[in-house]
Design a protein that fits this description.
The chain is α/β, with parallel strands linked by helices. The protein contains 16 helices and 14 strands. Helices cover 44% and strands 14% of the residues. The strands form 2 sheets. Strands 3-4-2-5-6-1-7 form a 7-stranded parallel sheet, with helices on both faces. Strands 10-11-9-12-13-8-14 form a 7-stranded parallel sheet, with helices on both faces.
Length: 442
């Protein structure tokens, strides 16, 4: 506390209010933070608190990896200033230091080591050094470490930390590389400072509840909304979350539900946080029966005890399917139903392969079955009508040609040896002599 007073820390920043309680509880975390003193203090304060709480520390228990020498020195100075009264020692192993001098610093086993991956790894390999007592590890500016191609060196340093430890990863931007690294490095990690849709990105998807009734309905061609409406009419007055693949899908369903006097609201990623929170509150309070969701993972929804979840569009990711089952309350009356169109069949097959508890195929709602029968009857009627109309037209055309006295055009025989009359190619000698005489006297 004296050290915090020395550096004029009197109030927590917004980042520290979110992150410090979780860090002090010992959680692994991926934390969004911009470079600067605010971010540095967020991991330095818990580090010093951990060290100060121990009776005696004679080994290195805190390791901080940061990409450049300027940042390493700033963190070193902050630790020295905050930890002065507690006599906490720190060493900076950075790009600007002399190797032999830094080796001596490492041999003295300071309680905190701040290092740049390149020079630190070189010294560790040269001394064959292993961290056996580190219980607090910080990887700072993970996005920059990737851009500078320093992650392979970070991984080699991590192999030399053989003790159990809490790991914190700080990043300004969340790339796929950073997220994958965090998922592979953190143990039951949490995400802090990101938008709600990313809040559970590091948590493992839940198991499908054993008492959950789950099934799917094969939807006839061009009858998805009809099937959806028929299904919900068979399961009335239930709090229901409906997932679609796009905002356009939620808009169509919203209009259809309102037309049939159902209370519904929708949320999607383009809405502001305030509007999403308000609409979720309306749903959880019971004012709204149907919550339509597009472009938002079920992992980001802070709701539970839903009576029914409907996959209007089947998710392509089995983990997302698992998160959706987690929204459903316990009990035999609860269910998850997927509407499987022709395009969704590969997705439902993938889900069936990965889940231990496989969803069952459900019968079509009675209204849909009845409409299918009517459709087939209409198709038969229209087909036979067309055939009759076709026969009538052909008969009429024949009759018309006879009545008008017109004959159908005859085929031409110009190219045949018999000429247009189609006579035999053999010549009549008599007719040939008479014709010759006519030509002579004409």
């Amino acid at each position: 506390m004296s050290g915090l007073h020395d550096v004029n820390y009197t109030e927590l920043t917004e980042l520290q209010e979110k992150a410090l309680p979780k860090i002090l509880e010992g959680d692994d975390a991926l934390i969004k933070a911009e470079p600067g003193k605010d971010k540095n203090a967020t991991f330095v304060i818990p580090a010093l608190a951990k060290i100060d709480a121990k009776k005696k520390v004679e080994e290195t228990t805190t390791l901080i990896l940061t990409p450049n020498s300027a940042e390493s020195k700033q963190i070193d100075e902050l630790i020295w200033a905050m930890g002065y009264h507690a006599q906490i020692e720190c060493a900076s192993i950075d790009l600007d230091g002399e190797e032999e001098q830094q080796k001596e610093l490492l041999k003295d086993t300071p309680q905190v080591i701040v290092g740049n991956p390149g020079p630190l790894l070189a010294i560790l390999q040269d001394l064959r050094y292993i961290f056996r007592h580190v219980d607090y590890l910080v990887i700072d500016e993970m996005d920059t470490l990737f851009s500078l191609n320093l992650v392979p060196k970070v991984n080699n340093i991590l192999k030399r930390v053989i003790s159990e430890h809490q790991t914190l990863i700080f990043t300004d931007t969340l790339t796929d590389e950073v997220q994958n690294f965090a998922e592979n490095t953190l143990t039951d990690g949490i995400a802090i400072g990101f938008d709600p849709s990313k809040s559970k990105m590091l948590s493992k998807p839940p198991n499908v509840p054993g008492n959950l009734s789950q099934g799917y309905i094969y939807v006839p061609n061009r009858m998805k909304i009809t099937t959806f409406m028929a299904h919900i009419e068979e399961t009335p007055e239930e709090r229901c979350v409906v997932f679609t693949a796009s905002k356009r899908g939620t808009d169509r369903l919203y209009k259809t539900l309102r037309k049939h006097n159902f209370k519904a609201t929708s949320i999607h990623e383009k809405l502001s946080e305030e509007k999403v929170a308000q609409r979720l509150a309306n749903f959880t309070n019971g004012d709204i029966q149907f919550l339509l969701v597009a472009d938002i993972s079920a992992a980001a929804l802070d709701i539970d005890n839903v009576a029914q979840v409907i996959n209007y569009d089947v998710p392509s990711d089995p983990d997302e399917y698992r998160y959706r089952t987690d929204l459903v309350g316990s009990g035999k009356a609860t269910r998850l139903v997927s509407l499987v169109s022709k395009q969704d069949r590969s997705d439902i097959n993938r889900i069936e392969k990965e889940l231990t508890q496989v969803p069952k195929e459900l019968d079509l709602p009675k209204k849909v079955t009845q409409k299918l029968k009517e459709r087939k009857k209409n198709q038969k009627k229209s087909g036979s009508k067309k055939q009759r109309n076709g026969n009538k037209k052909s008969r009429k055309s024949k009759k018309k040609s006879k009545d008008s006295g017109l004959e159908l055009p005859r085929p031409s025989y110009d190219k045949l040896s018999g000429g247009k009359s189609g006579s035999s190619p053999k010549k009549d000698k008599k007719s040939g002599v008479i014709q010759m005489l006519k030509n002579l006297f004409s």
